[in-house]
Amino acid sequence: MRRARQLTSAMMTATVASLAILLSVTAALPSSPSHGLSAFGELKYPVGFQHFDYVNPDAPKGGRMSMIGTAGLPTFDSLNDFILKGDHAQGLEYIYDSLMVRADDEPDAVYGLIAETAELADDRKSVVFKLRAEAKFADGTPVTAGDVVFSFEALKHKGHPLFRFGLRDVTKAEALDTLSVRYQFEGDRLRDLPLFVATLPVLPKAFYDKHPFEETWLVKPLGSGPYEVADYKAGTFITYKRRDGYWGKDLPVNRGRFNFDQLRYEYYRDRTAELQNFLNGNFDLREEFTSVDWATAYNVPAVKDGRILRLTLPDKSPSGAQGFMINTRLEKFKDKRVRKALDYAFDFEWSNKNLFYELYKRTASYFENSDMKAAGKPSPEELALLEPFRDSLDAAVFEEVYTPPVTSGQGQDRNLLREADRLLSESGWTLKDGKRVDASGKRFEIEFLIFSPTFERIINPYIDNLRRLGIDGKIRLVDSAQYERRRKTFDFDLTTTRYVLRLTPGVEMKNYWGSSTRDVEGSLNLPGIADPVIDALIDKALAANTRDELRTATRAIDRILRSSHYWVPHWYKASHNVATWDKFSWPAIKPDYDRGIIETWWYDKEKAAKLSAR
After folding, report:
1. 3-class secondary structure per residue, 524-586
2. How far does CA 26 lie from the centroid of its chain?
3. DSSP 3-state assignment of 183?
4. What is the spatial distance between Cα 562 and Cα 606, in angstroms, rounded to a whole number?
C-alpha cells in the first residue's frame, strides 16, 4: 500500500534514493579518469555511448503528466529538500543534478552528469571529479567546484541525519580549481564512498547565502537539473516545468529522458477522494498500492472501454522489508520471545485471501526478492562469519533460517495462538482474569500508530487475535504532521514502514540496523536495533571485494535479524500496479530497476487527441 511504502516525505525520497545507490568500487577499477563508476565488474556502457538502452532517444517533448506521488505524506509545507525539519514537496529531486547519475538497467553503476570524469586514487582514499564547463544553474550561473564543496559541507554538517551519517567518513571536499573537486576519505570502509559523493545533489552556494540551508521555506529553489518549480499551493499541488535551456539535455545520460513539459503532483488527504478524482480524469496517473482497490475499484466504463489502462510493470529490484516495526526501546518489547509471539498472532493467509485478493506473497527476509536473502541452513561461508560470534547469538541462527509461520487462513489459528501464549508466558507475561500482565501486574497494551485509515481493516483482525492472547491493542490515527514527529522521535509501539535496499547494499544498512543510529532522531532504525554482531557483519559487507563476499555477509545479517524478531513482516509483490489515462507512450524496454515513468515516458499527441474525442 502506498502509505506503507512512504517513509517520511519527498526529502526522504531523494535521501533514500541517494543512499540506495551507495555502490562499490573494486580493486579492478583502473586508477585513471573514467566516464563512470561500477561495482564488482565492468561498466555496461562504454566511453562515447549515445543513450541508455531503456529510453527512446527520439521521444517527443511536450505535454503534462499529473499524478499522485508515492513518496510523501499527503501534504507539504517546505521546498527545502535536505533537512529533517518540515514536510517536503514531492518531485524536488528533479530540480537538482548530481556529479553522476545512476543507470537503471545496471544494479550498481553511475555515469557522468555534471562531472565529465572521475579518477579514483590508487589507495581509494580520494576521488577527483572533473566538472563540465557547460554545466549551469537555472539562473545561468556556472556550476563550480566551489558549489560542490558547499553542498558537501552543508549536507554533512546541517543536512538530514541520513546525509550526515553517510558522509561521516568523508573528511574533506576541496576545489583544486574552478572545475575540479577532490573528495578525501578515511577509515577502511572505502568501498561505498566514491559513489555516494558522486550522487549527492549539487547545490548553488549563492542561493543558500540568501536562504538558510537549515530552515524550512516556501521559496522556489534553484538547481541545475531538468525541471524547476512553476507553481504550487502548500498541501494542495506543486507543478514543475521542464527547462528549455537545460544545459545537460543532450548528454548521453539524459537523451530520451525527462520528456514532459510539466510534472504536477496532486495532494489529497482522503484516499477515496484521490481515487475518484483520478477516475473522473482530474489527474493522469496513479500507482495503486491497495489490493482491494486494484481488484474492485477500477470496474468503471473508462477502464472497460480502454480510456484508462491498467498496467502491471515488472520490477527486478529487491522488494525490501515492509512490516509492523516493533519499538524495542520500550521495556515491554525487549524480550525476543514477546516479539516472536506477535508474529505468530498475525494471520497473513487470512488477510491475503479476504483483504488482498491473493495478490501478495508473505515477506520473510529483509532482502526479499533478491539473492541477498538467506535460505535454509548457513552455508560454510556464512558459518565462517558467524562462528566467531556463536556465544553471542541465538542457537536458531545456525539452524534453518526463520520464516513466518503459515496459518490455516481461518483468522484464528489455534496452534499458532497456543504457541504465542507459551512464548508470552515464558517471557513473564502471564494471564490474569483474561488479561496479559507482567510481574508487577501491569497490563500488556499495544498501540498501532498510523496516519491513514487504510490500514485499519488490516490491523483490526490482528487486534482481535492479540485480544485472545490477553493483549489490549488499539489504533492511534493521527494527522500526518504528528505522525512524522512521532516517528522521528520514536514515539510509538508499532508502526508500519517499508524500506528497500539495492542489489549492492552499502552503508545504508547502518541507517536501518546499526547501533550508531538507534537513538539518532529521524533515522530509519525504527525498531531500535543495537547489536554489535550485526554492526560487525555490516562492516564485513561494506568491506566485501566481490559480490559473492557481499552475498555471504548480507545473508548472515539476514539470519540474525530474522531470528531476533524486530518486526512482524507484511507482504510484497515484484511489480507495480499503475493506472493511467491513455495519453502516454513509453519505450519498448523498461528499466530493470525503476518504474521509468517520469524519466522515460512521453506525452503522445495522437493518443491524447483520440482520448479527448472520446
Report:
1. CCCCCCCCHHHHHHHHHHHCCCCHHHHHHHHHHHHHHHHHHCCEEECEECCEEEEEEECCEEC
2. 25
3. strand
4. 52
DSSP code of 142? B
Q: Given this model, what pLDDT does residue 31 score?
A: 64
pLDDT in tens, 503-537: 788 888 999 999 999 999 989 999 999 999 999 99
d(CA 132, CA 223): 16
> Nine-digit cell at 180?
575540479
Dihedral, 318, 98, 114, 62 alpha carbons, nearest 10: 80
Structure confidence at residue 18 (pLDDT): 42
By the 8 A CB rule, do 458 and 353 touch? no
pLDDT of the residue at 3: 35
pLDDT at site 507: 83
What are 249's three cell numbers? Answer: 539535455
In the chain, count H helices and then E strands.
20, 25
Question: One-letter amino acid identity for 309?
Answer: L
The cell numbers describing 199, all together, are 550522487
CB 62, CB 261: distance < 8 Å: yes
| Closest C-alpha among 84, 202, 13, 199 to residue 595 | 13
* Nearest residue to 346 (alpha-carbon basis) of 466, 446, 526, 474: 466
Q: Are strands 361-362 and 115-120 parallel, antiparallel or unpaired?
A: unpaired
- How far is it, in rounded angstroms, from Cα 513 to Cα 364? 17
> Which structural domains are found in the chain, ordered by start?
2-270+576-603 (3.40.190.10), 321-572 (3.10.105.10)
pLDDT score recorded for residue 42: 81
Report the residue count for the chain.
614
Q: In what order do the strands lie in the sheet with 115-120?
A: 115-120, 126-131, 180-185, 170-177
What's the pLDDT tens digit per position in 189-241?
777 789 899 999 999 999 999 999 999 999 999 999 999 999 999 989 999 99
Angstrom distance (rounded) from CA 259 to CA 69: 18
Place of cell 535479524: 561
The whole-number pLDDT of residue 290 equals 84
Helix extents (H) in 28-97: none
Q: From CA 421, how far away is CA 406, in angstroms rounded?
A: 17
Mapped to the 3 state alphabet, what secondary structure does 356-396 carry?
CCCCCEECCCCCCCCCCCCCCCCCHHHHHHHHHHHHHCCHH
In this prediction, residue 221 carries a pLDDT of: 97
* Regions of the chain where pLDDT drops below 50: 1-30, 71-72
For the full predicted model, state whether its pTM sits above 0.85. Answer: no
CA dist 426 → 348, 395, 399, 459, 469 (Å): 25, 18, 22, 26, 13
